[in-house]
Design goal:
Blueprint: H1 6-15, H2 21-54, H3 58-114, H4 118-130, H5 132-160, H6 162-171, H7 174-209, H8 211-216, H9 220-272, H10 278-319, H11 331-336, E1 348-355, E2 365-372, E3 377-381, H12 388-396, E4 403-408, E5 411-412, H13 418-423, E6 425-428, H14 439-443, H15 452-461, H16 465-469, H17 488-502, E7 506-510, H18 518-531, E8 536-540, E9 552-557, E10 560-562, H19 573-579
Length: 580
């Protein structure tokens, strides 16, 4: 039933059903029970009609009618129970995929996310994966029934009348053939529909987040028109997909109706000439539509499940994206993959490191060689775009070197366990992200079990205690989405409090005082020098207030290390080869 290209997604989906296999087995069992009930229902109904045609009294029919009612009720109950268990299977798989998508997005890091549309990822993990309900609750069970029911019906009809069984067997393949032909066209339509939905979700999120800027620059109306245009495209594509689905339903119904009519004609003629008994004829006529019904239904459910399958295919693309900063599989990596490092006593060495971003004409860093000793204070300076933030991204393993290597002690950084490596690092970006929890929750982001005293101490060191205590509920005050109820400087202080609470071995600061006044900047500098006196600190700064305290200044320009007199360090042979 599936057109080419969908089978791989189906196999991947089924590989994520380990936690839902029990539900799927029960669903199939209910399908088998339903198949038996279909045969029993047809047999009882044919017997009742034949008895009524012979003029049997109602008392003689009472037992058959009661049994028929019981079978009908049991069939409804089995159908309901099968759909419930299938929906539970779908919920389990959706939860598994959402967790995997979230975990992979976090592993890929902010550099990868920066190249994606946040609204698309959000739409994918919510509305997109919700489409799997139709896949698991209706399409998969119907796919099983499409195999079981026709075989069971053919076997039963063959016992009663082999000629009708042959006619049904010859005409049955027409249904899947038409379904596959229609599926080829539906596949492209559904993919375009999903792309437009993802675009709409991403653009709408961008507009909502940038609404103040759009209003100030008078572009809100223009964005309304863009959203209206994308919405109209999505509406048109959706209607086109539905039109194909309805037309495919018409084709399948027509094929099934013609096949059923063919059986009815030959049964009627033989019944007319006395070559077939009345009860047998009724049984064949009642079972013939049941043979075609599952195939027609699976074609209809195929269209309903296409959106969920398309979303799952996109999820699998993200899951298959290589994680930056992780080594390629190999014997050396497997031997060192769980090795640890202690940044309190081991130095970090960059050996001819070159970093390249996709789509950029030149490397962000080129041939950088640098040794960072434990407990050292380093201030990175240089113009915008010089590669300072890229150097921090390499140490955070958000990206991997395109050439060269980074060593920690006597081990390659790429061979170290990523989680244990990042546990030793504290990072304060230029624009720290605050979540919608309380002030205490945001400070304890990296230390979930921290005590309230430790949280308050970290806030005091960062100069955040005064404004936090002035909030309506103090440390228990919700900060709202992105912490927008706070000023930029206050958000920066909470981000610094996170670092002080974590007490990292390596502290990476990207313009930590950009939003602070000079007095507050000096206070933060003093706190770093005292509280983190024996820690390694690498700081990006455009100012001149961080030169004291034994700091080593490093200059970057166009991705290259510069000497104090402005000359570039020699480029390593590896970096030169990459540049060529």
């Amino acid at each position: 039933m599936s057109p080419p290209g969908r089978g791989a997604a189906d196999r991947r989906l089924l590989s994520y059903t380990s936690g839902a296999r029990g539900y799927l087995v029960v669903t199939v069992a209910f399908g088998l029970a339903g198949t038996g009930l279909i045969l029993a229902q047809a047999g009882l109904l044919a017997r009742a009609l034949a008895a009524a045609a012979r003029g049997d009294v109602a008392a003689a029919l009472a037992g058959t009618l009661v049994a028929l009612l019981v079978v009908v009720a049991a069939r409804a109950a089995v159908s309901y129970a099968g759909e419930v268990t299938a929906l539970r299977a779908a919920a389990t798989v959706k939860s598994t995929l959402r967790r995997a998508l979230t975990a992979r997005s976090l592993q890929l890091g902010p550099v990868w996310l920066g190249g994606q549309r946040a609204g698309e990822i959000t739409t994918l993990s919510t509305r997109g994966l919700d489409g799997l309900d139709s896949y698991f609750a209706r399409y998969l069970p119907q796919l099983v029934l499409a195999v079981l029911v026709p075989i069971a019906v053919l076997a039963r009809v063959a016992v009663a009348d082999w000629i009708s069984a042959v006619v049904i067997a010859v005409t049955l393949p027409l249904i899947p053939v038409f379904a596959v032909l229609v599926g080829w066209h539906t596949k492209a339509q559904t993919r375009r529909q999903w792309r437009l939905l993802a675009t709409l979700g991403g653009h709408f999120l961008d507009v909502v987040e940038g609404l103040p800027t759009l209003k100030v620059f008078g572009r809100a109306k223009a964005q309304e028109e863009v959203i209206a245009r994308v919405t109209n495209d999505y509406r048109a594509t959706t209607m086109s997909t539905l039109r194909v689905a309805f037309l495919s339903g018409l084709v399948l119904e027509l094929a099934a109706a013609l096949a059923t009519a063919l059986v009815a004609v030959e049964v009627g003629l033989r019944l007319l000439y006395g070559h077939l008994g009345y009860e047998t004829a009724m049984l064949v006529l009642l079972l013939t539509p049941e043979a075609y019904l599952p195939l027609r239904a699976v074609g209809a459910q195929f269209h309903a499940s296409m959106e969920g399958a398309a979303a799952a295919a996109r999820v699998f693309e993200i899951l298959d994206t290589p994680t930056p900063g992780l080594p390629q599989p190999g014997p050396r990596v497997s031997a060192l993959g769980h090795a640890g490092a202690d940044l309190r006593c081991e130095d970090i060495r960059l050996n001819g490191v070159t970093a390249v971003y996709p789509g950029r004409p030149r490397p962000a860093l080129e041939g950088v060689s640098l040794t960072i000793a434990p407990g050292e204070r380093i201030v990175l300076r240089g113009p915008s775009g010089a590669g300072k933030s890229t150097l921090l991204a390499l140490l955070l393993r958000f990206i991997a070197p395109a050439a060269g290597s980074i060593a920690v002690g006597d081990r390659d950084l790429a061979a170290l366990d990523l989680a244990s490596w990042r546990r030793q690092i504290g990072w304060v970006p230029q624009q720290p992200y605050l979540f919608s929890g309380t002030a205490a929750d945001n400070i304890a982001l990296g230390e979930a079990g921290a005590s309230r005293d430790a949280i308050c101490r970290a806030a005091r060191l960062a100069g955040a205690a005064d404004f936090i205590e002035a909030l309506p509920a103090g440390y228990d005050t919700p900060l709202g989405e992105r912490g927008l109820r706070l000023s930029a400087g206050q958000r920066q202080r909470i981000a610094l409090a996170r670092v002080f609470l974590r007490d990292p071995a390596l502290l990476l600061l990207d313009e930590p005082t950009a939003h602070l006044d000079p007095a507050s900047a000096r206070q933060i500098g003093t706190a770093i020098d005292t509280v983190l006196a024996d820690r390694t600190v690498i700081l990006i700064s455009h100012g001149q207030g961080w030169d004291g305290g034994g700091c080593r200044g490093i200059w970057l320009d166009h991705g290259k290390l510069m000497t104090p007199d402005g000359a570039a360090w020699p480029v390593s042979p590896i970096a030169a080869a990459v540049r060529r």
